[in-house]
Amino acid sequence: MAMEMRLPVARKPLSERLGRDTKKHLVVPGDTITTDTGFMRGHGTYMGEEKLIASVAGSVERVNKLICVKALKTRYIGEVGDIVVGRITEVQQKRWKVETNSRLDSVLLLSSMNLPGGELRRRSAEDELAMRGFLQEGDLISAEVQAVFSDGAVSLHTRSLKYGKLGQGVLVQVSPSLVKRQKTHFHDLPCGASVILGNNGFIWIYPTPEHKEEEAGGFIANLEVISRLRNCIISLVTQRMMLYDTSILYCYEASLPHQIKDILKPEIMEEIVMETRQRLLEQEG
Amino acid sequence: MASVTLSEAEKVYIVHGVQEDLRVDGRGCEDYRCVEVETDVVSNTSGSARVKLGHTDILVGVKAEMGTPKLEKPNEGYLEFFVDCSASATPEFEGRGGDDLGTEIANTLYRIFNNKSSVDLKTLCISPREHCWVLYVDVLLLECGGNLFDAISIAVKAALFNTR
């Protein structure tokens, strides 16, 4: 039973390995963004001593006259139409409280949930009592953001067949700023697993639901594929790369020559992500 | 360890995997995570070590002082262990919650280091029945992420190795 010991190594700064031409204007709290007073202050900034100063650590975004700082490490801030993966924390009277890595627990109303037996049925008292039968504490769901309340709390709905309770699989929690906004967040990867990239940073990896008869045989292969995907996603996150279906797929292919448990070692992680980065650059340009 | 809530389906998945000797992160059932060992981290101790095993973070400091040998072992010095589970390690250790675990780990450490092969206690003796070295080993749990016994024993060994 061999154990691997290693000495701690100083982390290498990412910039010397990136080689990107578009440099983002990164600031830390207290940095001066501009001394020009003609700009409007957006989120993440404040006016002090005739200068515009950043109050969060992130990248500066400018839209005409509006300057704001988008924080890199934040909790999830909901927007209508986002796909999220959440965990049920409480079952309340007519709604469920869902944890989505945001500042307040999100809310899933009973009326926003698909019930068996037709969509347009009015929710009755029996439905309320049977709530725990649909979703219990600890269950995972995929849902879409219906509305955002004024205090920032998010209201979810699962009014489509593609949303709902999630079955067997693995959850990976990452920072919400690393999930790229795309047209669709449900991806079926060719390696046999599917992935849901929640905008709130919760990523759900599960075996692609194929023909039901093959389930028993393909189980072991699926488990390895899913573990490998999970380790790939974690290595992409450690190297601060954006997560989308292409980057995850390239990273998976780059990791195939290594053993699954070796992917988490720092040097192999760097190697795989470097290869992924190169392939992505080749594909773009 | 901070408890993690899981859905029933996730639990079934994990159990299936473990039956096939495959954990969720691809390790086998008997594989260890990567261990990071660093010695000589605390300057005002005779020896120290810091061990990181996944999310588990242990800091050990060793202080050597003069003392009198125990009556039943007049030719040897001895070790004294103290384990402090800091409240920031995991929410369950708030207030006095970590004391029970601390005493349990300390008792285990006494049993582990009681034999001749780990530390030769005769070398700690200065003059029999009068003076000897006493090594006070303080273990601090900075973060609790599983596998405490292994990480603590590695850290104590590294700190004793580092003791001058």
Provide the fold topology.
The complex is a heterodimer of chains A (285) and B (164).
Chain A (H helix, E strand, L loop, with lengths): L4 E2 L8 H4 L7 E2 L4 E3 L5 E2 L3 E4 L2 E4 L3 E6 L2 E6 L11 E9 L3 E5 L6 E4 L15 H5 L1 H4 L5 E9 L5 E4 L6 E2 L4 E4 L12 E3 L4 E5 L4 E6 L11 H20 L6 H11 L10 H19 L1
Parallel strand pairs in A: 4-8, 11-13
Antiparallel strand pairs in A: 2-7, 3-6, 5-6, 7-8, 9-10, 9-12, 10-11, 12-13, 12-14, 15-18, 16-17, 17-18
Chain B lengths: L7 H12 L15 E5 L7 E7 L2 E12 L10 E8 L13 H14 L12 E3 L3 E13 L4 H15 L2
Parallel strand pairs in B: 4-6
Antiparallel strand pairs in B: 1-2, 2-3, 3-6, 5-6
H/E element order of chain B: HEEEEHEEH
Fraction of residues in helix of chain B = 25-40%
Distance between the termini of chain A: 47 Å
Structural class assignment of chain A: alpha+beta
The chain pair forming the largest interface, with residue counts per chain, is: A-B, 34 and 28 residues
What fraction of residues of chain A sit in β-strands? 25-35%
Instruction: Give me the number of helical elements of chain A.
Output: 6
> What fraction strand of chain B?
25-35%
The dominant shape of chain B is elongated
Q: Average pLDDT of chain B, to the nearest integer?
A: 84
Name the poorly predicted regions of chain B.
Answer: none
- End-to-end gap of chain B: 34 Å
Q: C-alpha Rg of chain A, in Å?
A: 22 Å
Number of strands of chain B: 6
Task: For the largest sheet of chain A, list the strands in their spatial order.
Answer: 9-10-11-13-12
Task: Describe what this molecule looks like in 3D.
The complex is a heterodimer of chains A (285) and B (164). Chain A is α+β, with helices and mostly antiparallel strands and 285 residues long. Chain A is built from six helices and 18 strands. In chain A, helix 4 (219-238) packs across helix 5 (245-255) and helix 5 packs across helix 6. In chain A, 33% of the residues are buried. Chain B has 164 residues and is of the alpha+beta class. Chain B has two domains: 1-31, no CATH class; 32-162, 2-Layer Sandwich (Ribosomal Protein S5, domain 2), CATH 3.30.230.70. Chain B has helices at 8-19, 99-112, 148-162, and strands spanning 35-39, 47-53, 56-67, 78-85, 125-127, 131-143. In chain B, strands 1, 2, 3, 4, 5 and 6 form a six-stranded mixed beta sheet that branches. Chain B is elongated and about 65 Å long. The mean pLDDT of chain B is 84. The chains are: A alpha+beta (285), B alpha+beta (164). Strand 1 (5-6) of chain A pairs parallel with strand 1 of chain B, so a sheet runs across the interface. Chain B: Keywords: Cytoplasm, Exonuclease, Exosome, Hydrolase, Nuclease, rRNA processing. Chain B: It is found in: Cytoplasm; Nucleus, Nucleolus. Chain B: Belongs to the RNase PH family. Chain B: One of its GO terms (cellular component) is cytoplasm.
